[in-house]
Amino acid sequence: MTLPVDREIDARGSHCPGPLMELIRGSKSLADGQTIAVLSADAGSKKDIPIWVEKAGYKLLAVEEQENGVARFVVQKVARKS
Amino acid sequence: MNTPMENIVNPVVNDGRVNRMSIILFSGTVDKLLAASIMATGASAMGLEVDVFLTMWGMMAFRKGAYKELNKVSADFAEYGPMLQQKLSGPGAPNWMENLVQAKEIGDVHVYACGMTLEMFGMSKTDLEDIVDDVVGVAGFVERAKEGKVTLFV
Questions:
Q1: Which of A69, B71, B127, B129 could form a disulfide with B123 if both were Cys (CB 3.0 to 4.6 A apart)?
Q2: Could you count the other beta carbons within 10 Å of the beta carbon of residue B29?
Q3: What's the CATH number of domain A7-76, 3.40.50.12640, 3.30.110.40, 2.60.120.200, 3.40.50.1820?
Q4: What CATH code is carried by the domain that includes residue B68?
Q5: A81 counts as catalytic
Q6: Residue B105 touches partner A, C-beta closer than 8 Å
Q7: Distance between CA B131 and CA B10 in Å, rounded?
Q8: Does any CB of chain B come closer than 8 Å to the CB of residue A6?
Q9: Which residues, including other chains, have CB under 8 Å from residue A56's CB and lie 6 or more apart?
Q10: Chain B contact for A80, CB < 8 A?
Q11: Which of A2, A3, A15, A16 is flagged as catalytic?
Q12: How far is the alpha carbon of B128 from chain A, nearest alpha carbon, in Å?
């Protein structure tokens, strides 16, 4: 099953830490509560992306395993309370 | 038994040091430049401030345009040179300069050139890529590095 999102990023051709960087840049312009998905073939992303999402205070809605070691990370932006 | 990284409990240390990674970039071969750039990018992504101090061959890699032609690999791993050069060429290949530019875009990353090295090679800041923020001395760099939590020599 593939969760629908507000923004989809294909970072399969990108190497560590490329997919994470694309997620960070892609989520910058999102509004609070909006969702973003990033496709990554980089093994490091499986650790890196959840760690970053937690640090950023965002929500990791799903990690969808696909073929050939590709994973789709579905993230929801949560605005920081200041 | 293998321990997954997320199972490691981090001891909490609060000794007043700032969240900064200081990288002394001495090497000018693509393998080490790539490693240093990835560390800088990862640190920047995780919210650390990053200071990169360019000295000797690390600084020479930041001469204007040098990064486009640089393909030297550490001599002690010369046998991997051709393989690495092939992996690092072509569209979508990892690129250390691009990594640093991205690290700067998302975070607080400073690149400093060593004044002594500049002088030794008869160069000035204008000979270096625009990503270089400033020319500093070793004492100034160390003064900042001692406040930070992580220091790397590459």
A1: B127
A2: 21
A3: 3.30.110.40
A4: 3.40.1260.10
A5: no
A6: yes
A7: 34
A8: no
A9: A27
A10: no
A11: A16
A12: 25
